[in-house]
From TrEMBL:
<dbReference type="InterPro" id="IPR050155">
    <property type="entry name" value="HAD-like_hydrolase_sf"/>
</dbReference>
<dbReference type="InterPro" id="IPR023198">
    <property type="entry name" value="PGP-like_dom2"/>
</dbReference>
<protein>
    <submittedName>
        <fullName>HAD family hydrolase</fullName>
    </submittedName>
</protein>
<dbReference type="GO" id="GO:0016787">
    <property type="term" value="F:hydrolase activity"/>
</dbReference>
<keyword id="KW-0378">Hydrolase</keyword>
<dbReference type="InterPro" id="IPR023214">
    <property type="entry name" value="HAD_sf"/>
</dbReference>
<dbReference type="InterPro" id="IPR006439">
    <property type="entry name" value="HAD-SF_hydro_IA"/>
</dbReference>
<dbReference type="InterPro" id="IPR041492">
    <property type="entry name" value="HAD_2"/>
</dbReference>
<dbReference type="Pfam" id="PF13419">
    <property type="entry name" value="HAD_2"/>
</dbReference>
<dbReference type="InterPro" id="IPR036412">
    <property type="entry name" value="HAD-like_sf"/>
</dbReference>
Length: 225
């Protein structure tokens, strides 16, 4: 029986992927590395540990730390104030609570970014908890963040669903034994989201069709939307 929903935040509940890409582009450029924005977007959804090494396989631990800190500082300075929740994000969290589900947020973001996301969502009172980069050793696509969220929610993998927007959410959830419902708002093609049990345009679409969706404990739905 479904007992908990684990929501990714960036690109799922909050419109932020583009800003993360721009901050990464500037941080990498400052270190002498230039990439196409699409190349950077293809890695969004991972924390700095995996993001940097996907692009720079020979990066040292110090390189990863310095680039991650630079990206975070640039994101906070130039983009954090521009974050907005996707339409229906807060209402979907409320609907999940009304359905009797534990609601957890599970993100690769650091604490400063997570605090800003919670502020943007106005969701602290709507969720049962959250996990971020500070809670785990490795970011998505490693399963650590979702495993920590499961532990905090007190549920088994088969009793939870992940809602996310990137292939890294799906991969991390699969490693943790959790099914994923994907949204296209992170701007990944359906082919990249193929491991999800259902794909929606955005969280507003999930909310609109909630009663027939996999998020409704009473529906048992697993269709593709």
């Amino acid at each position: 029986m479904l007992k908990a929903i684990l929501f990714d935040i960036d690109g799922t509940l909050v419109d932020s992927n583009e800003y993360h890409v721009l901050a990464w582009a500037e941080a990498l450029h400052g270190a002498g590395h230039d990439f196409r924005l699409q190349t950077l977007h293809d890695q969004v959804g991972q924390g700095g540990d995996n993001f940097v090494r996907a692009l720079l396989p020979d990066a040292t631990d110090r390189d990863v730390e310095e680039l991650s800190q630079a990206q975070s500082a640039l994101f906070q300075r130039h983009y954090a104030h521009r974050l907005q929740p996707f339409a229906g994000a807060k209402a979907l969290l409320e609907r999940c609570r009304e359905a009797g589900l534990e609601v957890m947020l599970a993100t690769s973001a650091n604490r400063e970014t997570l605090d800003r996301q919670l502020e943007v969502l106005d969701a602290r009172h709507l969720v049962d908890g959250w996990t971020g980069a500070a809670d785990v050793g490795h970011s998505k696509p490693c399963p650590d963040i979702f495993e920590a969220a499961l532990a905090k929610a007190g549920v088994e993998p088969q009793e939870a669903l992940v809602v996310g927007d990137t292939p890294f959410d799906i991969a991390a959830a699969k490693k943790a034994g959790i099914r994923t419902v994907a949204v296209r708002s992170g701007l990944f093609p359906d082919a990249a989201l193929g491991g999800a049990i259902a794909i929606y345009d955005n969280v507003a679409a999930i909310l609109e069709g909630f009663d027939q969706s996999p998020l409704n404990p009473a529906s048992g739905a697993a269709g593709r939307h």
